[in-house]
């Protein structure tokens, strides 16, 4: 069994009843599909006045003789109706039986498809839920190497491909084979000799079709990977549209998109050609066999005779036999098509399980502590940390007492933002430890750790929603009054109150309707509403102009009152009032003290202040 097939099976457990009923109704469909053609025999015999006469009502003997009992019972009634009321009444009976069997066949097909639909849609819902949980739970480090567009393609396109293609396997192993088996059983009963041709046809057809479909899984996976890349190009282009346009780079991005579209075009054409070949090829091979059957069977009806002078095969039986032979063609075509689709579905499943099986390296320990308060200090002890080869932090130690503001300053690449990543456990320390009130943060639940912290980053990450809903992320059950109070602390209410719908105003994609300073003040309001005991400000003003910075600086000072704050700053004007300033260089602390103490040292900090005062 294919590995991906094994992985899909657990998702079917909640829908066991749908699988069961789909199988039951498919069995009934296959049975009545065969019976509908067998019922043509008595109808044709009535038409040709060649009915078997049964004058005595048959008696039930055993379940093993049910076929003979049913046949004799039907012919008894046909004989009775013909003799008592005339052949037209017998014809009405057999026509009614033909209609009934075709009707039941289609009713069972409807119920089978209905249960299959519930199974497919339930699978789609559950896998997407599980994938989203996985995607949102994976550490930040995972996405530094992955394309977001490819993740979207896997979650939306590939899962849908598994749903559409893979579940044709139920048809492949139940409905169509049973239709073929029941039909062949009936054909053997009518003429063993004639059915030998069909036994020759099926393996040849299967061999040819499997040869064509051999490379399909590999090509399907390539096409799905390309589709992921294509969505990434679109997502990145839209995300950076200002840069694309300002650098007149539309041509380069269009070329990148066109190249991907061309590759996808060639792959999908190649897959499509093989897919399209399966149906006509199996039909043509079937028609060739039917032509041989017509010629050979026709001879048995018209030319060959038994010892008593009767034809070797009766005309009515032969016509029903041809109907049954044609009844094999449709499922044979469906099997060849489904076997192709299943390959495509399994290739998509491989990409889905690639994500579902990624190990999440940042998780809660067993019996992790739920920390609800911050009481004394944050301690960073002897940390060595690297993203790739070179250490970003080297033997870094720092203590942040409760209620104090500690600022980290230094050139870009000195490791300041890495401290924020480690405190929030976006990344885990490789050597050393980070402790809150003496408890290692790895021993706390992630939820309780992050509940103690508020984070305001350089990039104001806002969502395409109202101001109210963006700020509510900090506290889902907050009242409008609490939101307005947070906006006032963040120095943002002065512009929010002038908007057409106030806090109910939609701010557009990534807050695109607002200025940089306004977006940053909303980010601060969100952190204020959360009201955490520890605040981490990661370059919170570096992307702002001087006027916006003043507004945001006031907001930050309001927020940091009576709170423990770690401020990562590039602009030194924002951190002069900090209780301790830590100067970093290449991952190490080179100086620390207050603003005045560091100026008096006339060292690295003093040089940074001098450089910025001339900017």
Major beta sheet, specifics?
6 strands, mixed
CATH topology of one domain: ABC transporter transmembrane region fold
Euclidean distance between termini CA atoms: 68 Å
* Large-scale geometry: elongated
Number of helix segments?
22
Residue stretches low in confidence (pLDDT < 50, at least 5 long) are none
Q: How much is the radius of gyration in Å?
A: 38 Å
Count the E strands: 10
Which CATH architecture of one domain?
Answer: Up-down Bundle
The helicity comes to 55-70%
The mean pLDDT is: 79
The CATH superfamily of one domain is ABC transporter type 1, transmembrane domain
Query: In terms of structural class, how would the helical and strand content be classed?
Result: alpha/beta
Adjacency order of strands in the biggest sheet: 6-7-8-3-9-10
Strand content: 5-15%
